[in-house]
Amino acid sequence: MTIPTPEEQADRVDEQQQRVNVLEGIASHAVTRLASGKTPWDEWLTHASRHGRHGFTNTLLIPAQRRTATDVRSYDAWRKTDRHVRRGETGIRVISARGKVRSLFDIEQTEGNAVDMPTATSADGFERLSRVATGLGLFVDRRQRWTYLGRPDQRIVLAPELDELSAASLLAHQLAHILQPGEQMDAVHGQPSGCHGARRVIADSVAYLLLTELGLPVSHLRFPPAESWAGADLRAAPDAAVRAVGERIVRTSAKLLRRLGEAPSKTPAAPSAAAEPGASETPHEGFLPAPQKATNQAREKLLAAVADAHRFYQRSLRGSWGADYLTSRGFSPAVQEQWEVGHAPGTYRSLLNHLRKLGHDDRTLIEAGLVRQKGDEKPFDMLRDRVLFPLRDQEGAVVGFIGRRQDGAKGPKYLNTPESALFKKSENLFGLHEVRGRLADAARPLLVEGPLDAIAVNTVMPQTYAAVAPCGTAITAAQLRSLTTTTGLEAHGLVLALDGDPAGRVGVLRAWRALQHVTHPVEVAVLPQGRDPADLMSSAARPSVVEALQSVVPLVDLVIDETVERFGGTLEFVESRLAAVRAAARLIADLPPAQIGRQVARVAARTRVETTEITAAVAAAVSPDSDPTPAAEDFPLPPLTDRDRTTRTTSARTGEQQRRSRSRSR
User: DSSP H helical segments within 117-196, as ranges?
Assistant: First the structure.
C-alpha cells in the first residue's frame, strides 16, 4: 500500500474542504430564501419533519438536491431495513456531524420491503405527549378536578373544552418552551397568546414536527413570514436569525422526539396530586387497568358482571332522588323503565358488596370498570350517587354506563365508566342500538349532547329523528363508522343539535373539525339559548324546541359565519373585512367544488367585499404562491460534480422514474 505524500494529503484535505464549502454555499442560499420569504416557513418545516435527524443544514441541502425526498438514509442503513439502493443511483450530498461530506439515498432510490409509517389518532397523540410531560416531572391539567400541590411552574393548564388535536398542539408548544435553556412555558393557562415573534415561531415549529412524527394533522398551525420576526434590514442579520432559529428548532425537537420514543407505555399517577376516596370521581389512569382485548371466556365473565351491576342499579332507582329528578323533568316512570335507567347509591361499596355476594371477584369488577382501587387501598364503587344510563354494544349487551350527578353536587356533570376490554368511549354512541330499527325505517340520525337529550327526542319525535349521543366527547371517526354501518348516511345525512350560546358556537367548530370531510349532508339545528333537547319533555318548552329541531341549516354555513365574525368582528373597517375574507377563504378552499360558489357569494354579502377578491383569496388558499423552480437551477455556484448532473433514461425505468429524470435534465 502506497503511503500518500504530505502534498497529496494536503490536496485531499483541500478537496474535502472545497466540497464542504460548496454545500455550505447551497445551504446559505437556502437560508436567504427562507429569510426573504421566497421559501415559505411551513415548506421548510415539511422538509425538517422528514430530514431533521440529519441536522438543520441538511434539511436545506437534501431538498435542494432532491426536492421530492421523503426518507433519506445511508447505503448501509437501507440494507439493515431489507432494502437496497438501486445500481447507478446518485447520492444526496450532506455534511456529517464531523464536518465530512457523505452520501445518502432517498427511499425512492431503493427497492425492498415496505417501511412502516407512523399513524395515530389525536387522542393517541395527546396521550403520548402527556407521557413525555410526565417524564419531565410536569403535570398536565385539563381541569380533571385533581388537587395539584406541586410547583406552579411544573403545571401545564389546558382548557377542558379543547379537542384532542388542539390540546396536543398546545401541549407540544409548551414542551418546546420547557426544553429550551432559559425558557419557560406560557403563563396564561397554557395559551400561547402572549407568545410572539421568534419565540412563538420556535415553539409552534417544534409542535409541528412533533405532531407530524405522531401522524397528526398540522394544517391548523400558521406561521408568519420570516421577515416579520427575523428582520428585513440586512443590518438586523436576518440570515443569521433564521439559521439560529432553525438550529434551535431542530435541536429541541430532537430532544422531544427521543423522549417520545422512550415514553412509558402507561401514564404514571399525577405528581403531587392529593385525592381521597370520594374527593373526586374523575378516574386517573394510574389507578385503572389498561384496556385490552378480552378472550371469549373473559369477555363473558366481564359482561356477566356488568349485567348484574345493571340490574342492581335499576333496582336502586326506585325511591331515589334520581327517580324524582327524572319525573320532575318529564321523564315518566314508563320512559325510565323503557330505557332501563338506574341509580348508583352514594355509599362507597354498595355495588362491590352486592357483586361479591353473587360470586364476582374483585379483579373482574376492576377490569369491567365497575370498581376502582388505589394502590393497596380497599376497592370501592366507581360510580356513586348518580343517575345511570346503560351503554350498549352493537349486539345490545350493556358494556358500561354514563352517570349524571345531582344538581349542585361535586364532580363532573356526566361521568363514564372507564375504558375496558368491553367499552371504548371513542367508539360508543348512547342510544344507537335502541334506535337501529327506526334508522332502518329512514328516521334521520340526530346527534345530541347527552343521554337525556337522546331519550327526549326519541320519545317525542320518533318519526322525525333517531337521536344518539357521544359519551362525553366530540364525535369521533369511529363513532361515525358505527353510525354509517347502521344507517345510510349518504341518503339521510346527519343533523347536529347545538345550543345557541357561546358554548354552542365552540361546539360548531369542534363538530366541523370532525365532520368537514364527511361527504353526506351535515346540518345543524340551533336551539334557543338556555334550551336543550331534553326540554321536549316539558310541555311549556316543547313548541320552541320542536320548531328549532325542524329548522336546520348546513353546518358549513354556521362555521363560515362564525369564522367571519371571529376574524372580522363588526366588519366596520376594511382591514377587519379582509381578515375575515382570508380566514373564510381557507375554509372554502377545502370544500367540495360544488359548494364553493355558494359560499363565496355568502361571504361577499356578509363582508361587502367583491366576489372577485374572495374568489382570488380562495384560489390563493388552494394554490398558495410558491417558486416552482428547483433551487439547483437558480443557485449561482457551479455543480457539485459532473456525475451529479447526469441523468439516466433507460428503457428499464418506469414512467414515473423517466418523468423525474427528464425533470432533472431540464
Answer: 122-135, 164-178
Residue type for position 661: S
At 565, the amino acid letter reads E
Considering only CA atoms, which of 551, 574, 561, 559 is closest in space to residue 605? 561
Q: How far apart are CA 382 and CA 387, in angstroms?
A: 13
CA separation for the pair 118, 138 (Å, rounded): 26
Pairing of strands 465-470, 147-148: unpaired
Cα gap 372→351, rounded to integer Å:
11
Reported as a pLDDT band with limits 50, 70 and 90, residue 587 is: confident
C-alpha cell at 341: 335507567
Distance in angstroms (rounded) separating the CA atoms of residues 666 and 664: 6
Are residues 527 and 498 in contact, defined by beta-carbon separation less than 8 angstroms? yes
Total length of the chain:
666
Distance separating alpha carbons of residues 403 and 322, to the nearest angstrom: 11
Who has greater pLDDT, 146 or 313?
A: 313
* CA-CA-CA-CA dihedral for 227, 233, 239, 241, to nearest 10: -70
Could you give the 3-state DSSP secondary structure of residue 415?
strand
Q: Is 6 exposed, middle or buried (0-12, 13-18, 19+ CB in 10 A)?
A: exposed
Cα 439 to Cα 495: distance, rounded to the nearest angstrom: 13
Q: Tell me which amino acid residue 425 is.
A: K
Closest CA to 239 of 449, 54, 60, 427: 60
Tens-place pLDDT, residues 291-303: 444 568 889 999 9
Q: How many CB atoms lie within 10 A of CB 290?
A: 12
For 405, phi then psi, to 5°, come to -80, 165
Query: What torsion, rounded to 10 degrees, do the Cα atoms 388, 392, 397, 403 define?
Result: -10
Distance of CA 654 to the CA centre of its chain: 37
pLDDT, one tens digit per residue, over 14-73 is 777 777 777 787 888 889 889 988 899 999 999 999 999 999 999 998 988 888 899 999
